[in-house]
């Protein structure tokens, strides 16, 4: 009978190996869950439903869009100088006028009657002043005639005195006759001297009165001219060449003095009026540039006037063309302008999109190089315009980011594309 052989027990059985492998896998899984698993919140999104853009290094210019309304560069308003009712209308709104063309005629019976009465009074006053002036001239000639007469009398009394003086020396006449002749001569000489002084006084007085009369008559003539101009003001005429606008009157309408009747748009170019949000009032200045595209051409303007009154959250500016103006624009047309706040400079930029409303420009979804997912990345946005944001930090040229709206993403840390 043979001896029994001892069978050696195997150290590594298949079962043991499988058990160890299972435990190892379980431990590794636990470790993965604890330390290596991506714990970020995820969301699966359809890649075709989002917009991805590439970050660029390019020229950037800060500007804001504003709407500009076309107006004539210069406008002259037409107001009624005198009141009255509309008697005749000679042109229609939109008519091209020359300076002095009659637009309409007002009628004012009370003013016309008053003018006639004042004109009559002025004519009477002028006539009286003219008569006074004629009287002064007549008085001058009267004084001259009086002096001629006195000169003649002096000549006679002098010759008489000289004869009687000779006769008196010859004792032919009495003392009385000689003395009478002497007194007559001296009397006429004194009368002449008095007349000369009176003539001087009359001349000075007449000259002053003549000047005053001349001034008064000139003033009356001007008053008369003004009265006639007032009557002429009932004819409303074009103050300059241009196109009549905002003109709407009907025959028989009553217009008050000072009432606005219309305006003349001068044919010397256009300007644009634009309303700008009050937030930019401290950044807007005279000479600031703007531009707009029209019919395939870019036109440049600059701010020429700023109206600082703020109404409904905005203030108004006037912009004038720099150089060429488009021929096709019309009064009242609205054009979208780009009002520049800086010149073009080198910058890192990203296209505008709906993401900004959700993030405020503080972060963005950065697309991984594999193009299979995107993760949050902090950024800092600087200036902006209607097309781009300026990226100050967080992105480099060539990076790919999601720029469409984030409303449906719920703020997830990671977006996985499918």
* Radius of gyration, whole Å: 54 Å
Distance between the termini: 77 Å
How large a portion of the residues is in β-strands, by DSSP E? 25-35%
The proportion of residues forming helix, as a percent range, comes to 25-40%
The tally of structural domains comes to 4
Q: How would you spell out the order of helices and strands?
A: HEEEEEEEEHHEEEEEEEEEEHEEEEEE
How confident is the prediction overall: mean pLDDT? 84
Number of helical elements: 4
The helix/strand class is alpha+beta
Q: Choose one word for the global shape.
A: rod-shaped
Order of strands, widest sheet: 1-24-20-19-23-2
**Biggest beta sheet summary:** 6 strands, mixed
Which regions have little confidence, pLDDT < 50, spanning 5+ residues?
none
**Number of E-state strands:** 24
Describe the 3D structure.
With 418 residues, the protein is an alpha+beta fold. The protein folds into four domains: 42-60 and 345-417, Beta Barrel (conserved putative lor/sdh protein from methanococcus maripaludis s2 fold), CATH 2.40.420.20; 64-73 and 269-340, Efflux pump adaptor protein, beta barrel domain (Elongation Factor Tu (Ef-tu), domain 3, Beta Barrel), CATH 2.40.30.170; 76-108 and 234-264, OB fold (Dihydrolipoamide Acetyltransferase, E2P); 109-232. Helix content is 35%, strand content 33%. It has helices at 14-36, 109-169, 175-232, 355-359; strands at 42-45, 52-54, 56-60, 63-72, 75-79, 84-89, 96-97, 102-107, 235-237, 242-245, 254-255, 260-265, 270-277, 289-294, 297-311, 314-321, 334-340, 345-351, 363-367, 373-378, 380-384, 388-393, 400-402, 414-417. Strands 1-24-20-19-23-2 form a six-stranded mixed sheet. Strands 4-13-16-15-14-17 form a six-stranded antiparallel beta barrel. Strands 3-18-22-21 form a four-stranded antiparallel sheet, with no helix packed on it. The relative contact order is 0.19.
């Amino acid at each position: 009978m043979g001896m029994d052989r001892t069978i050696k027990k195997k150290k590594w059985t298949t079962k043991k190996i499988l058990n160890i492998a299972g435990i190892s896998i379980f431990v590794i899984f636990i470790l993965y869950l604890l330390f290596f698993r991506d714990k970020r919140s995820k969301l699966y999104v359809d890649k075709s439903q989002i917009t991805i853009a590439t970050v660029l290094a390019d020229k950037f210019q800060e500007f804001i869009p504003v709407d500009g309304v076309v107006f004539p560069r210069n406008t002259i308003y037409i107001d009624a100088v005198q009141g009255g009712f509309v008697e005749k209308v000679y042109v229609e709104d939109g008519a091209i006028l020359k300076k002095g063309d009659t637009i309409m005629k007002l009628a004012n019976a009370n003013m016309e009657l008053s003018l006639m009465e004042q004109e009559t009074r002025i004519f009477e006053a002028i006539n009286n002043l003219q008569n006074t002036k004629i009287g002064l001239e007549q008085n001058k000639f009267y004084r001259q005639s009086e002096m001629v007469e006195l000169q003649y009398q002096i000549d006679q009394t002098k010759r008489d005195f000289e004869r009687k003086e000779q006769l008196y020396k010859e004792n032919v006449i009495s003392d009385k006759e000689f003395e009478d002749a002497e007194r007559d001569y001296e009397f006429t000489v004194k009368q002449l001297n008095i007349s000369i002084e009176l003539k001087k006084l009359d001349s000075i007085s007449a000259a002053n009165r003549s000047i005053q009369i001349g001034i008064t008559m000139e003033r009356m003539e001007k008053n008369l001219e003004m009265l006639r101009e007032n009557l002429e003001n009932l004819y409303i005429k074009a103050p300059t060449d241009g196109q009549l606008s905002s003109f709407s009157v009907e025959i028989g309408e009553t217009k008050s003095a000072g009432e606005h009747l219309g305006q003349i748009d001068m044919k010397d170019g256009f300007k644009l009026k634009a309303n700008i949000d009050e937030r930019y009032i401290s950044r807007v200045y005279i000479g600031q540039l703007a531009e707009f595209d029209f019919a395939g051409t870019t036109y440049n303007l600059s701010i020429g006037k700023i109206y600082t009154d703020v109404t409904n959250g905005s203030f108004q500016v006037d912009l004038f063309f720099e150089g060429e103006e488009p021929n096709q624009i019309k009064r009242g047309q609205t054009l979208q302008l780009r009002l520049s706040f800086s010149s073009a400079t080198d910058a890192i930029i990203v296209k505008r999109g709906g993401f900004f409303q959700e993030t405020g420009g503080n972060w963005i979804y950065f697309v991984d190089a594999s193009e299979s997912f995107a993760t949050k990345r902090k950024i800092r946005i600087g200036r902006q315009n209607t097309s781009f944001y300026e990226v100050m930090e967080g992105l480099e040229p060539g990076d790919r980011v999601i720029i469409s709206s984030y409303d449906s993403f719920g703020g997830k840390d990671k977006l996985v594309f499918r």
